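note to self — DONT lose this again. spent like an hour looking for the file last time. sequence + predicted structure for the chain T wanted, 197 res
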Amino acid sequence: MSEEKTKKLAKSSTKGIKPAETKKLAVSKTRAKKIKHNYQVKDAENALLLKLKDGDVVIEMFPDVAPNHVERIKELVRAEFYNGLKFHRVIDGFMAQTGCPYGTGTGGSGKKLKAEFNKMPHRRGTVSMARAMDINSGDSQFFICFGDCGWLDGQYTVWGQVTSGMEYVDAIKRGTGANGEVSEPDEIISLRVIADI
């Protein structure tokens, strides 16, 4: 075939388009059902999909023991509050903390929650609410335990448990600064309620 007869393709006009400007294709009901089934959760309305740099983490929530915390977390997740937030405090062998909009551990969503301390233990994969000295100061920050942390039991509100993908939580960049402060921390790519996928 001669060169004159070959068609030259124009350069792609999509280069440089921001993700927000691109259309998202709708997922069919059948495909959505298949996606939800892949995560094998008891209750898709009370389960979260946490996307991290290394993979997907499934968190099953406990509305029976921490109903107000679970409800508030779902509100924030559905408002896309957590997307892009940093794991600002990560202590090896202890936990990874996130949920501060400033990435410093000093901020929240602006709505304090009354403590819902319960009998759920702090063990590997437990998701619990961070707080200040005031027991009713939980807001949007939470932490995921790397190991068993029994000394926290009854003092922090446990609202969820990692049921798959804990190896990706283990891969979160550790802090070397004071109190686990992380320089150039990993972030939450996205956090979604599995029922909404």
